[in-house]
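Case study 2.
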Amino acid sequence: MDRIQNSAAEDEPPPTLLSKSALRKRKKVPASQGGKKYNADGFDNSNSTYPYKEDPKPPPPPNYEERVNKYSREANEGHKSRHRRATRRDENRNTCSLYIQTDPLIWRHIRESFPEHADPRKITEVNEKTREEILSLIAHHVTAVNYIYRDTKFDGRSEHRNIKFEVQRIKIDDDSSCNCHHSRCPEMNQFCLENIDVSNFLNIHSLGNHEDFCLAYVFTYRDFTGGTLGLAWVASASGASGGICEKYKTYTETIGGMYQSTKRSLNTGIITFVNYNSRVPPKVSQLTLAHEIGHNFGSPHDYPPECRPGGPSGNYIMFASATSGDRPNNSKFSSCSIGNISNVLDAIEDKKKRNCFSASAGAFCGNKIVEAGEECDCGYDDKECTDQCCYPRIISNRDRELNKSAAGCRRRYGTECSPSQGPCCNSECRFISSFQREICKMESDCSTSSKCNGTSAECPVPTPRPDKTRCNNGTQLCIKGECSGSICLEWNLQACSITTQDHPNIDKRKLCELACQNGTDICRSTSEFADKVGLPPGGISLRPGSPCDNFQGYCDVFLKCRAVDADGPLVRLMNLLLNRQTLITVAQWITEFWWAVLLMGIAFIIFMGLFIKCCAVHTPSSNPKKPPARRISETLRRPMNTLRRMRHPHGQAPHAPGTAHGPSGRSRRDPTGRPSASQGPRAGYGEGRGHYHAPKGKKAYSPLATAPPVGYASPHQPHPELYAGAYEMRNKV
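Prediction:
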C-alpha cells in the first residue's frame, strides 16, 4: 500500500520497485494458485489494461460538484466472459466495473448533518435524504476519476486510451446493524467497529469475494492515524497478486505463530472523507480516489525526483502526499506513473494477468444511479429496492403478475417520480411542493441552502456565495462556490510556504503558520503583519493535517510541522543500512582501517569458538557416553567446574594411578560412561538434541509445507504496509 501523506518527504524508491522478484520468495501460495504473490498498496501505499478506443469526448464540466455524471456497467450477462482477455483489436473493452460500498460511519455522519435527523416522525424521510446524498457523493467521485483517466494516454507497447469506470453495484450500510443485540443479529457487521486501523480496515474489506468486478472500494468517515486518506493493493506487471481484475483466492498467512489459509480479493481499496476531525474537501477526496486507483493499476508513488517537481505547477496524482488540487499537475499522472501503469496494461494484453475489462453498454440498471435512458433506479432486486415507485432490475413474480409490461428501472403505473431520482420526491411518488420549503441541500461555507421547487425530483443547484468569502475557519476564500482560494488573495498577495531550506533553524511551529508573499518577495508569516490587516495576534495557523514546509511535512494536532516518510519502518531501516552513501562510507572505512577489520575478524572467530565450546556442556545430548548437560545456574555458581568440563568433555580428568575418578562425594560412572545401575537417567539423558516432545494427548506441531509471506506478523489481520508494494495515501488538507 502506498502512503500518501500530508506532505511529500524525499523518499527512497517505493518498496514495489525494490522487491517484485522477492515477492515469490516471500509469499507461497498453494500449487493451485500458480505461485502468485501477495502484493499491496495505502496512503495508503497495480495496473490494468485498456484496449485502444478513440471516442469523441464531451468537454468536462467547469465544476465537478455542479453536475453528476452517471455510470453503469453492461447488463449482467455472462460474468465468465469477462474473464477472457480482450486484445486491442476489441476496441470497446475499455471499461472497469466498480463495486462501491459505504460503511455505517459515513452514513451516520451524513445523516446527522440534517437538522431534522433527531425527529422520530421524519426517520424515513431523513434516511432517504441520506441515501440520496451518499449516491450523489459516489457519482461525483466516479465522474471526477473518469475525467482524469479518460484523458490520459497509457501507451506502452500498445495504446491504452479512453479508460472508463462504471459503477455496477452499490451497497450502502446504514447503522441499524450496529445497534442490534447479538442474539438478533445473524452476523456482526465488522465495519461497525470504530477503532480499526487503516490496514485492518482494508483487510476486512478484502475478505469478501469481489472477483466479479474490476475494482471494489469502501468509502468511510474514519479519522485514521497519521493523516491517512486511503489505502489500496498495488498491481504488478510481473504477475504478482494484487490490483485490478484480481481473483478471489487463497493466501497463506501467519496468525499467532501458526500458518493459516485465507481467501481474499486484492482488487480492493478504501478512502476516507475525514482528516484530523475535519471533512476533506471534495477535490482532495476525488484526487485521493484517483490516487488509490492508480495504485490498483500498478503505479507506486512518484519517483525519482523529476516526477515530483513541485513548484508553481505542483506535484502529480501519485505524489506521496495529498495535494490541494488547485495546481495544474495535481490532476495529472507523471511520466513515471504512466510508464508503470502501461506496463501492467501491456501484461494484461499479453495474457500474463487476468483481463476483466468490458465494453460499456450505457446505463446499468440496478446500480442505484439514474443514468441516461432510465426513469429510476432503486437497486438490483427486491432486497435492495425499498422504493415503492420504481421497479428494480430483477422483477419479482408478484410484480410480473400485476403488470406484465413491467420493466426494470421504470416507474410504476400512476407515479410522478421516484425517490431514486432525487431528494425532492416523497415516498408517495409525488414531487415535494415548493410551499413546503423543503431543504434538499444544506448550506456550506461557499453556497446557500437549496430547496425543492415542486417541479423536479432533483435538488436545484445551490446559489454560490460571493467570491472571496472566507471559508474553512477563515483560512481560505470561496472561488466560484468552492472553498479553494487562499486568504492571501484578500490582500492581493499570493500564498506561499515557509520552508526549512530558507530558514534551517526555524521553530517547527512557525512552519504551520499561514504565509503570504508579494510577487517574488520573501515569504512572510501572517503573524508578522497581523495587526496591519486586522488579524488576531499570532496571525492564522494552518489546520491540523495541512501540508507544511513546501509539502515536505504536515501539521500535527499540536500545530508543529512533522516530516513525512511515505515508506514503512522496515523500508526505512533497509534504506538506512543499504543506501548507496552508507555502503560507500563503509567501504572507505574498511579500506583505511583494514588491520582493525582483520583483528575484529580474528576476535570474532575466537569468541565464536569459546561460545560454541561453552554451549556444548549445557546442551543435552542423546549420546549415552556423554556426561549430562550442566545447568546455567551451576556454571554461575561453580565456573571452574564448567571450565574443567570444557577441557575434558568426556569427564575423564587427569588423575594419579590408583586414585578415584572425580571429586569425592560425586557419583561414579562406569568405564563406558553410562550411569551406574543404582542411578536413574540424568538430566538430558536419552533426549534427542533439540528434539521437541509433545505433551501426552496432544498432537505434535508439524509446520505446513506452505510458508507465510515475509513480514506477515499481525496476530489477527495481515498488515498490507508490510508487503512489498504496500502503499498508503497520507493526508492533505
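The radius of gyration is 33 Å.
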